[in-house]
Structure prediction request, 177 residues.
Amino acid sequence: MATALLVVDMTNDFITGKLKNDRALKVISPLKKLVDEAHKSSTPVVYISDAHYPEDTELKLWGEHSMKGEWGGQVVDELTPTDKDYTLEKRNYSAFFETGLDTLLRELNVDNVVVTGVVTNICIQHTSADAFFRGYSITVPKETTEALSDEEYASGLNFLKTMYGAKIVSVDDQLFE
Ligand code: ZN
Prediction:
């Protein structure tokens, strides 16, 4: 089974910017460890981040955030993608929605996705739904995602497990071969 590491929406606006979330700060260090392990094991790392246009539907609900070409839409410094990584832009909650992610994963022969990033019950949930619909198995290291409250984090993880069969694991588990 080939695995890819997906890093969703770890952009400045979701951590310290327009939609800042202090809870998301604690995701950075365990996620960095996971990205390093993925690199060492030659596991593909795919960053999929909001790169919004002012007209995007989502902004009616959330206001402007993670805009294309702006600082707020850049991945946080600690997790800056390397030239070996893949970077895709999205304009809606799901990392699969019109981003080319599914095509890329199929070209890489991936059938298991490790889904990380923010927010657990929003973009991570929609990304996991689309992964499930497309037949991927899903793994979520619990330290590498966060929500806006304890309740949303816990119910978010539970939803991923119940609805999509996501394996909820720890970053200390062996995730890459
Ligand atoms: Zn957005």
Remarks:
- DSSP finds seven helices and seven strands in the chain.
- The two ends are 10 Å apart (CA to CA).
